[in-house]
Amino acid sequence: MARIVIVSNRVPSPTERGPRAGGLAVGLADALKDGGLWFGWSGEISAQADGTVKRVEAGNITYATIDLSQADYDRFYVGYANSTLWPLLHFRLGLIDFRREDLEGYIEVNRLYAAALARELQPDDLVWIHDYHLIPLGQELRRLGVKNRLGFFLHIPFVPASLFTALPQGNTLLWAFCAYDVVGFQTEQHRRDFVDCIEQLLGLTVRGDGTVVAGAVSMRAIANPIGIDARGFAALAAKGERSAETRRLKESLVGRSLVIGVDRLDYTKGLPARFDAFGRLLNAFPEHRQKVSYLQIAARSREDVSEYQALRRELDRKAGNINGRFAEFDWVPLRYMTRAVSRNTLAGFYRAARIGLVTPLRDGMNLVAKEFVAAQDERDPGVLILSRFAGAAENLTEALIVNPYDPDEIAEAIHTALVMPADERRDRMAHLRARVFDVTAETYCRNFLAVLKG
Ligand code: GDG
């Protein structure tokens, strides 16, 4: 059987016990259940970042990592990946901060990864590369003579050709995608937009099944939505409900309904409009004053990028305004924290909530929506309010779907959810749960690897 090699920008440490442990490590666990190699950046910045590989064995998985230099980190990670590609692929052209030297750094780091990874590879390895930091890695591996099957999965959205053309030297990046055997997207829409770019901007023909065959190119674009370990998460939530933290949370609510939001502190997540929406709910529907508490957990992220610092200031201000305007001496409407909480705690909190508020302006998929659904008690479930621009909305259609740019619409949806009869909540949640338990982390890994095997 072929060995599986996973490559991602950050490699989870096998001993990681921090609050953010989870994420990709959980999502990809199934791909490595029979063992394999996980390769990428150690998360360390060091002066001697010369591509030396550090190895840690844990069970049947080898974790192999390299360090980055400060200059590489600045150009590759803070620069091109998070200040050009991230805003571009989330439809935010106005936030792009492109510098040629960042693009050069991005290519150089991908070359560094390729040289180190090529030395680790065995001829039959199936190589599965993840996300926008590493788009050119496949092409760099091919330049080094690597003949293995190479797959790539983009966790974030893709944009229509009319937006993609804003990217300086964008066609070079499109050609880099063409070095893979399989390129995966979260949704059918993202896949279609990518295929349009390949056809319109590169002039290649894409067949109905997403295959491009032209010269040296033999690539297939597929839609393969990511999911969660729904059964595992449901069990975590049932247990978390009895945890000391969840009990404390419930006691602090004194019977009020809980609205919960959980996001990385990121401008794609629609947090300012969401805060505004909550303010408008309290203004337009005064019957909910003192009856509802909104807990927003927004773990700080990418603090080196200036846009994220500006967002944090904006949210601090908005949170202060809402609480200053509506709070009573014994009720604080908005509880806003920028610290991460543990996964167990999170699971219990989702289950305690009447409403899961997930309103990104754009999102590849959004796993929080799926976690909220998996965590619910079927007998007395909460309501999911979901942005139409989250990839998850493609199949979680029984959520209350909203336009995340319209705070009034979100406020009305919160009101609808707060007064929704139990029968309707159960009915909607039963449909949502069927989907979340059907498209899981396991099916995601299995389907992608089946296509990659060819
Ligand atoms: C990218 C794409 C796509 C959040 N706060 C805490 C915490 N989290 C966990 C959540 C969830 C994960 O982080 C966030 O995943 P999302 O999918 O919501 O969003 P991104 O981080 O932007 O992920 C996204 C995803 O990749 C996978 O393909 O769905 O579209 O943007 O698991 O629970 N976890 C803990 N404490 C926190 O405070 N423990």
UniProtKB/TrEMBL annotation:
GO biological process: trehalose biosynthetic process
InterPro entries, alphabetized: Glyco_trans_20
CDD domains: GT20_TPS (cd03788)
One Pfam family this sequence matches: Glyco_transf_20
One GO MF term attached to the UniProt entry: alpha,alpha-trehalose-phosphate synthase (UDP-forming) activity
Superkingdom classification of source: Bacteria
Family assignment from sequence similarity: Belongs to the glycosyltransferase 20 family.
PANTHER family: BCDNA.GH08860 (PTHR10788:SF106), TREHALOSE-6-PHOSPHATE SYNTHASE (PTHR10788)
Protein's UniProt name: Trehalose 6-phosphate synthase
Organism of this sequence: Dongia mobilis
Lineage: Bacteria, Pseudomonadati, Pseudomonadota, Alphaproteobacteria, Rhodospirillales
